[in-house]
Amino acid sequence: MNTWHTIAFLLVLVSPGHAQQTRAIDPQALLEEIDRVQRYASISYEGTMEIIQGNRVLVKQFTAKARGSGLVFLEFTNPEDKGVRMLRVDQAIWMYFPTEGETVRIAGSMMRQGLMGSNLSYEEVAEGESLRGTYAPAILGEDTVDGRPCILLSLTSTRKDISYPTRKLWVDVERRVPLRIELYARSGSLMKTIHVRAIESISGRLLPTRVEIVDALKKNSRTIFSMRSVKLDITLPDSLFTMETLTR
Amino acid sequence: MITFRGCSDPFFLKCLKATLAMLILALGTAMAQAQEGSLVFGIRSTASAGGTEASVRGGFEEEFSLTARMRKGVLRISLGAAGSLSGWYASALRWASYSESQTLRWSLPPWPPDAEMDPAPDLLADLEIREAAMALALPGLRIEGGKFPLSWGTGTVFRPADLFRATNPGVFVTEARSLPAIRCTVFTGAMQRIEAAAAIDGTGTIAAGARMFGTISAAGFFALNAGWRRTPSTSGTSDEFSVGLALQHEWDNFSPTVELSLRVRDGNSVAFVMAGTGLTIDRLAFRTEIQEKIDFKINSLLMPDLFLIAAWNLSDLTVLSFPLLWLPSSDAVSLGASIRLEGILRGRLDLSGYTAWYTRAGATIFRWHSAVSWTHAFQ
Q: CA quadruple B247, B251, B253, B254: dihedral positive or negative?
């Protein structure tokens, strides 16, 4: 799933369950539960990114469609980027710029740069594997976020091909949705923090529709990502995720 | 690895402010003494109906700009307006678009009649059709006709495999030219296509060719092309035949691009080879390209042309970049600096300057240019 997609997936509420004591929760089972619920077949939405640095704001608008774990299609609709499209097929990201009339493959050397200036890197957009297959979970304890009791879940991975070998999730005990996520580098340094600002019930799921991404390495820098007109498990044809559609 | 983990400390902020101050000071100085300086204010808005899901949709976009340019003591003011219309119908007619720009310009005082540069008139009303095209599409097939951007190749500056772009443009970033053209594209797979295109440009050059574009597993792509180009010459016309290859491959974060073009004109064979690669270290991004011309008749290698750009992402909304272009074959070198600040007064502020040295008629000429622009977009 792409990061915007992943953000949604990371924060999707698992099936509402009974409140449980932290010590009674099997972290692997919790992660599997999160992963299972995150694996909806497809999604479409209209998105907005507000890239904020101090009192400066840059707004990007787009429509997004994604299917499975490797297919994402975005089309930007704000005036400055109107017609710019992005296609992700597995780990490859292609961009189309209407002023050039040509497709550009995002090179590996650019993968750590921010997508359209945001706090989301191309590399993060290209990640799509499940948490369960990538991380080993452990429960660190209990905490509160915005006054709500949470389970603090730690995810660690020894793999070298992922952006963040360690993640911490604050999972709402009652609603079972992550309210806060911290992403760490291999050195142990905090890289980014994701805060959930709004949650909506969509197709029977609680979906975070507004999140704030704070880059720990950039002073006064954050990106607010919002989704609207969200549709889940819709039919998205193969032809959508092709060069033909990218260059149409 | 360079990192700015200490970006929150006062030292970094001081360095940043000092850097920006120096840049602005340099640009300001340049503005005061430059042969050419410009100040651009732009406003842009769009309106559309139908949304991206609709089978019928259309849009209107307009752009206004006011440019003040000082050159050799003459102030030249230009008013520009551009508009575009687009339509899309999810049937046989897939899209049609039209855009034009209108420029009105006058000079205060009038441009000196004996000036060696800028032959443009003091009063100018210029209409340019940027794009006027339509496309017909069937599943796996698209036919486009009209005037539209046409570009092949992978390089930022050097694109020897681009049949429709001039070689060695001598500027830092080249945009695809919008040309009167026809293009037929057959999509042979999800990420593969074969296209044939023909175009004519404003100089009377006619070019036609075909290209096969495909992926190399998930690690890169290639584009193989063959073409013909007829250019006007003093003796009539000159025909050139060419084959080209563009290639990009990924090895972790190393992703080199290579372009090769072999051209035959009047019995003489010439090859152009471009190699480029990028590198990102934390917030620093580098891109370099070199291009070599191989003349089989002379059978000697010259110093290759070089393009290098270093971009420093000071923040998500601020990018400082330094491009360098060295063209030994043309005895020209250009060095620039630019900073882009997004989100300034809800718009984008660009400050840029470059210097160029080149040789013309045996004399070395020095030229510098600076520009400030602010753009705001409405929707």
A: negative
Alpha carbon distance B160, B169 (integer Å): 11
Task: Collect all residues of chain A within an 8 Å Cβ-Cβ radius of residue B257.
Answer: 107
Q: Do B315 and A218 touch (CB under 8 A)?
A: yes
Which of B58, B62, B64, B68 lies closest to B90, judged by CA? B58
- Mean per-residue pLDDT of chain B: 75
Please name every residue paired with A200 in a beta bridge, in sequence order, or none if there are none: A207
pLDDT of residue B219: 80
Q: Which chain A residues have a beta carbon less than 8 Å from that of B278?
A: 107, 109-110
Cβ contact A119–B316 (<8 Å): yes
Q: Residue B360 pLDDT > 70, yes or no?
A: no
pLDDT value at B28 more than 70:
no
Q: Tell how strand B36-49 and strand B363-378 pair up.
A: parallel
> Residue with structure tokens 């026809």?
B182
Q: Quick one: which H or E segment has residue A190?
A: strand A190-202
Do residues A180 and A195 make contact, with C-beta atoms less than 8 angstroms apart? yes
Lowest mean pLDDT among A101-115, B77-91, B347-361: B77-91
Structure tokens at B311: 């971009």
pLDDT of B116 reads 52
Banded model confidence at residue B249, pLDDT cuts 50, 70, 90? confident
CB spacing of A100 vs B255 below 8 angstroms: no
Q: Which two tokens stand for residue A162?
A: 């992922």
What pLDDT was estimated at residue B378? 66
Q: For chain B, where are the E strands, in sequence order?
A: 36-49, 56-71, 74-89, 93-108, 124-138, 141-150, 177-189, 192-200, 206-216, 220-233, 236-249, 257-265, 268-281, 284-295, 300-301, 305-315, 318-327, 332-344, 347-360, 363-378
Q: Which residues of A touch B285 (CB under 8 A)?
A: 109-110, 113
For residue range A170-222, list pLDDT tens digits in order: 988 887 788 999 999 888 899 899 999 998 888 877 788 899 999 888 778 88
Q: Which residues of B touch A78 (CB under 8 A)?
A: 377, 379
Euclidean distance between CA atoms A119 and B315, whole angstroms: 10
Q: How far apart are CA B83 and CA B61, in angstroms?
A: 5
Query: Cβ distance A75 to A245 under 8 Å?
Result: no
Q: Which of A87, A243, A90 is nearest to B250 (CA)?
A: A90
Neighbours of B95 (CB within 10 A): 18
Q: Which residue in chain B has the smallest CA separation from A101? A: B149
Does position A92 have pLDDT exceeding 90, yes or no? no
User: Structure pTM?
Assistant: 0.77
Nearest CA in chain A to B223: A103
B123: helix, coil or strand?
coil
What pLDDT, on a 0 to 100 scale, did the predictor assign at position A195?
Answer: 94
Task: Report whether pLDDT(B170) > 60.
Answer: no
